[in-house]
Recover the amino acids of this structure.
């Protein structure tokens, strides 16, 4: 993770961080998209671990999780997808994003060891705050996994250092108060928030929640070190499915074409800015 962000800094550009829900709408399609993301321009890949109660996520990702679970997704199956991806790509950082319940059921120490062995680089566990970090942090650290924290607009000056002290890899700035994919932050709000966080950390900073268009991604890449795009890609995938919710022949292509457009905007952001 650190090597990828350092390389991008040397190139003078921000990162495009893309999200997909594993097994959505089926394992084969999501694996095809996963394998195509680096060539399409994704610098870091977040893979959503399907869960029945994804409380930080909006309706689009909730529906994606239900499609994935219906397709047979399990935590072990997601790790298997990462192993298959790693057979053809050893360089692109992979982050698993999800919730604590499936990890707890799997066994925390076993999960961290298996995730690292599969080729996972980092974890975002949405519902484990710093106060409960000892549930997973020692095991993640022992396995060499970055534990990436979410910082929100409501994270105040007193709490910010505590959250950031428990963070590695990069900081994920949740640009809105609310769930994923519902609205977008203003440029003015982001321009005020990013320097405040930078005063407390030297880690790369990526902006997510509400980044939908190439223009918004470019703006995030100018203000911070990366833009995270998730719901917009999930929506494109969902719109491509047939009446029974199955992938069509061009489902993967539609999502990857969208990633190419986002990547082009992110790569030109600082030159244009």
């Amino acid at each position: 993770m650190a090597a990828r962000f350092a390389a991008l800094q040397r190139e003078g550009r921000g990162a495009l961080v893309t999200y997909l829900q594993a097994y959505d709408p089926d394992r084969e399609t999501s694996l095809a998209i996963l394998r195509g993301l680096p060539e399409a321009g994704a610098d870091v890949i977040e893979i959503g671990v399907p869960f029945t109660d994804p409380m930080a996520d909006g309706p689009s990702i909730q529906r994606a999780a239900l499609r994935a679970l219906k397709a047979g997704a399990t935590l072990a199956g997601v790790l298997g997808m990462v192993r298959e991806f790693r057979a053809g790509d050893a360089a692109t950082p992979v982050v698993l994003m999800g919730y604590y319940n499936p990890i707890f059921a799997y066994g925390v120490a076993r999960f961290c060891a298996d995730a690292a062995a599969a080729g996972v680089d980092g974890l975002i566990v949405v519902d484990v705050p710093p106060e409960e970090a000892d549930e997973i942090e020692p095991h993640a650290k022992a396995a060499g996994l970055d534990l990436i924290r979410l910082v929100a607009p409501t994270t105040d000056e007193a709490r910010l250092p505590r959250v950031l002290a428990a963070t590695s890899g990069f900081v994920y700035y949740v640009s809105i108060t609310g769930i994923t994919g519902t609205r977008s932050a203003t440029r003015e709000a982001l321009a005020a928030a990013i320097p405040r966080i930078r005063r407390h950390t030297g880690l790369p900073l990526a902006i997510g929640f509400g980044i939908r268009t190439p223009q918004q991604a470019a703006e995030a890449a100018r203000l911070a070190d990366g833009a995270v795009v998730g719901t917009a890609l999930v929506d494109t995938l969902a719109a491509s499915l047939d009446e029974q919710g199955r992938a069509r022949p061009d489902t993967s292509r539609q999502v990857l074409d969208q990633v190419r457009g986002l990547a082009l905007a992110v790569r030109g952001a600082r030159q244009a800015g």
Summary: The chain has a mean pLDDT of 92. The chain has one domain: 2-272.
